[in-house]
Write a structure and sequence with these properties.
The protein is of the alpha/beta class. It contains 4 helices and 11 strands, in the order E-E-H-E-H-E-E-E-E-E-E-H-E-H-E. The strands form 3 sheets. It has a 4-stranded parallel beta sheet with strand order 1-2-3-4, with helices on one face. It has a 4-stranded mixed beta sheet with strand order 6-7-10-11, covered by helices on one side. It has a 3-stranded antiparallel beta sheet with strand order 5-9-8, with no helix packed on it. Strand 10, helix 4 and strand 11 form a beta-alpha-beta unit. Helix 3 runs parallel beside helix 4. The protein is globular. It starts with a strand and ends in a 7-residue tail after the last strand.
Length: about 200
């Protein structure tokens, strides 16, 4: 189906290889692409020095979520490098508040004449770096505000996708509270809720 989209969870593109897939693809970029910046002290940090996204996904990238607990691991320079690499690929991202972007506003993408809103938020429990220099912020999970945002945008788009970086790592099943929050988002108008961070397949 030409209107199909492949959704993936966490991706750290640390080496070049060919991901065999012909669908447009969306995933959570779990690290900065950078040779710059200073690592955030006191936490597990992730990064890649080379941009292998083209060799892995060819021209199939639709857009990427940056709402996770590692994208700011190398500070502002690391983020600027990452955004520059995505710009080379003409790939848009969502999940960060970078002026003039308003916090929690979705990325709107027109895909085969289908208007899609992409939201991305990260749960505080994943220990993210929340802000940089009082001007760049992760969109933190506030379920009540997110529900309102989803309901507001529902009439303006054909599809709504919500990425949430949350849950317990290596857990094979989502928590009851997370299931309830996801259900509330669906009832508010979201078409699909994609969870990341667990690093394990979940039903």
């Amino acid at each position: 189906n030409e209107n199909s989209i492949l959704f993936l969870g966490d991706v750290v593109p640390y080496k070049p290889f060919r991901f065999k897939n012909h669908y447009k693809t969306v995933f959570n970029l779990e690290c900065p692409i950078t040779r710059q910046g200073k690592p955030e002290p006191g936490k597990i940090i992730l990064s890649v020095k080379e941009n292998h996204l083209r060799s892995i996904f060819q021209d199939n990238l639709l857009c990427l979520s940056l709402g996770n607990n590692h994208i700011l691991d190398f500070g502002k320079k690391g983020l600027e490098s990452t955004l520059a690499e995505l710009e080379k690929l003409k790939t848009k991202s969502f999940g960060l508040e970078i002026p003039p972007i308003v916090k929690s506003d979705p990325l709107i993408v027109n895909f085969n004449e289908i208007r899609i809103a992409f939201f991305s938020v990260v749960c505080q429990s994943t220990s993210p770096v929340i802000e940089l220099e009082d001007e760049i912020y992760l969109n933190l999970l506030d379920i009540e505000k997110l529900i309102i945002k989803v309901a507001e945008i529902r009439k303006l788009v054909q599809r709504i996708v919500v990425y949430i970086h949350w849950g317990i790592e290596e857990s094979s099943y989502p928590g009851k509270e997370d299931i309830l929050k996801a259900r509330n988002l669906i009832e508010a108008g979201a078409d699909i809720v994609i969870g990341s961070h667990a690093h394990a397949p979940q039903p």
